[in-house]
Structures are given as structure tokens and as C-alpha cells.
Amino acid sequence: MGLAMGGVNIIDIRRNNLNNSLAKDVTRGLDPKNGTQRSLPTLLLYNTEGLRLFEEITYLDEYYLTNAEIEVLTTHAVSIVERVPENSQLVELGSGNLRKVEILLNEFERTKKPVEYLALDVSLEELNRTFAELPSKSYQYVKCSGLLGTYDDALSWLKRSENRRKPTWVMSMGSSIGNFTRSEAAQFLGGFARTLGADDALLVGLDSCKDPQKVFRAYNDSKNVTREFYLNGLANANSILGFEAFKREDWDVAGIYDEVDGCHKAYYTPTRDVTIEAWSFTKGERIFFEQAFKYAEKEYQALWQQAGLTSTARFTSSTGDHNIHLLSSSPYILPTQPAEYAATLTPSLKEFEALWKLWDTVTTGMLPRNELLSKPINLRNALVFLPRAYSDVFRYAHY
């Protein structure tokens, strides 16, 4: 169903009533099985008021992630845009404020490359507001649309063939992947990886900062904007449940950076013993609701492998602790054990086919088309014209 708002078409892709789903998640989280820790769903944070507060957070100096990503996009916009095929569709998961993606959209306009940008958000009000702030009416080469729904709705929408008639780039900015556990992140990205075709890609912003104080301050700012953002999640829970289950004066927020896991975790804590219908909470008890995992190089390389993705480019901030990764679906997962990759003296036909799929990925996916014509040596392009003998390439591809 299309909802035309302010000249931008908003497509309602919701499969379920979000509030009903959240109400069930709240009940399950507060009455966990097998003695696991109580929790509340992170999605409670992102109602209309929550999205407004989060946007305010992104302008705080302590919340370094946004400025780092803006720097990366500004520095590397030309390189990113030149890799996007003409007439592609760019689907941004959890678009929020559009000031970051606007950097790329302006570059598409400058280079006169036609694309369609689709912003996914759970709030119709926020889609209308943020598109109103984007100069989309002046765009000649960028067509803008909105998708109203969740990540799961977007994945389901992309699986339908009628929505995949163009090359598709799925974008996840702001290190949103960090809100999943590492295994959940691999499963999440893997779902999108399995929908990607030869001309498709994932563009993922990921925070690699492991400075405990810097990370802690990003989620526990001196102006308490993040605290208000978190407490609004409880107000949203009240709205969804239909009664004032969580009284503001009874609850506070606690944030902790776990150096071992490389993760900031946030909890609701009752300031006194509290009883809500059948649920009893002890003063100081922790109710988990949000996490933000940080990824060192070994950790994001492991994530790509587990998700079935291949890194084709990485765009890095000046500090080196924030990256935007360009990823494609792996044509072939390279074995890592000698018993697998050196099982016989000569490669099989299947292994040769896999090798050439990798070669195609390098020459048509990892290199921009204009670089295929460059000559790093006087006569020939080393990558295209000087491949080693088949057996050498196959052997060294494993290292």
C-alpha cells in the first residue's frame, strides 16, 4: 500500500501490527524461561518521540559515531558512488535522520547517475518529517521513496521478485549492527546476504572503537539526553501495554562497558522494590534492554565469514576506529583447514569453478570499472593481465 506524503511515496510493507508484537515481547522478556535475565525489547526505544531524542543524541560531541560516519562518507563519497550501478535501488535500514545519506545522494546528483533511494523506518511520522528536510524535489537523478516497517519486513519485501528488478544495495549505517549479539548479527546479515545477486551489495557502517571511556561517554552523555531516550522506552511500553506499568519515579538507567565482550550494555533498574501486576522487581535489579557491540578487525572479518559475505572495499575514518564496509554475497566460502583445501594433489572441476567465481568477484566486484583500464605498470594491469598459473592462484587464494 502506498502513502503519498509531501511528494514522496511511502510504501507500507508491514506484515504485522508492531504494537501487538512488542506487547508480547515485553511479556516474554519480563517472565523469562530457564532462569535467564529479564529484558525488554530494544525496539521500545524507537517510537516517534524516541526517534526525535535519538536524533538529538547524534548531534552531541560525546556521541562520536555520527561525526565519524559523516567524515567517512564525505571523504569517500566519490569512491562509493562510482561503485553503484546505474538505476540501482538503495534500501537504507533504519534510516532515521537523512543527513548522512544525503552526502551520497548529492554525489549521485553531481555525477548524474540515476538511482532510487528507499528509506526504511518504523515511524510514518519520522519518514514524513525527515523527507521534508531533504531537498528531494530538486533532485533530477535520485528518486526518493519510503518503506514503513521493520528490518524483518524489509527482508521479506526484498525476497519478492517484483521488488528486485534493479540492482539492490542494502545500507545499514550508524553501527546499528552492533545492537545485535555477534551471533545474531551474523544471522541478520546472512538473511540479506542470501537475497543478494551478482549486481547487489551491502554497505555497513560499523564502529571499531574499543576505548572504554570514549564508548561509555557516548551512551552516558553529560547532558542526560541518552537517559531521556532510554526512559522514553518505558513510557512507550506503558502506551503499548495500555496502562502505567512503569512509573518514571520508580526507575533509573544503568550503563556498563564490558571490556571483555567489547560491548556497552544498558539496563533499567528499579529505585525501590516494585510490583507490576504479576511481576515483582527488587531494588537495583537489572532489566537488560540495549547493547552496542564494537568490532575489531578480527571480529568483523569473522562476522563476514559467518554471514556468508565477502568484503570488497573498506572506507575508514581518519582515526581508524570507524569503517563503512562494502560487502557482497560470497560466491564461495574458502576452506581454512589443509585437510579441506589440500585434500588432493590437483584441484577438482568444482574447485576450479569456485576459483573463477572468486576471480569474477575480484575483477567485476572489488574493482571499480574505471580502474580496470588503469596501468599500474607501463604495459599492463597487473591484476587483470598477469594472473599466476592456475595451480598457484588456487593454492594462494587460501592464505
CATH architecture type of the largest domain = 3-Layer(aba) Sandwich
Corresponding CATH superfamily of the largest domain: Vaccinia Virus protein VP39
Give a short account of the largest sheet. 9 strands, mixed
- The total strand number stands at 14
Strands ordered across the widest β-sheet: 1-2-5-4-3-6-7-14-13
The average pLDDT value, as a whole number, equals 89
Overall spatial form = globular
What assembly state would you assign to the polypeptide chains in this entry?
A: single chain
Overall radius of gyration: 23 Å
CATH topology of the largest domain: Rossmann fold
SSE topology string: EEHHHEHEHEHEHEHHEEEEEHEEHHHH
Amount of beta strand: 15-25%
Report on this structure.
Helix content is 38%, strand content 21%. With 399 residues, it is of the alpha/beta class. It has three domains: 211 residues, Rossmann fold (3-Layer(aba) Sandwich), CATH 3.40.50.150; 84 residues, no CATH class; 59 residues, no CATH class. The chain has a nine-stranded mixed β-sheet, sandwiched between helices. Strand 1 and strand 2 form a beta hairpin. The longest helix is centred in the N-terminal third of the chain and has 20 residues. The chain is globular, with a radius of gyration of 23 Å. It starts with a strand and ends with a helix. The relative contact order is 0.13. Keywords: Methyltransferase, Transferase. This is Histidine-specific methyltransferase SAM-dependent domain-containing protein. InterPro entries: EgtD_Methyltrsf_superfamily, MeTrfase_dom, SAM-dependent_MTases_sf, SAM_MeTrfase_EasF-type_put. One of its GO terms (molecular function) is methyltransferase activity.
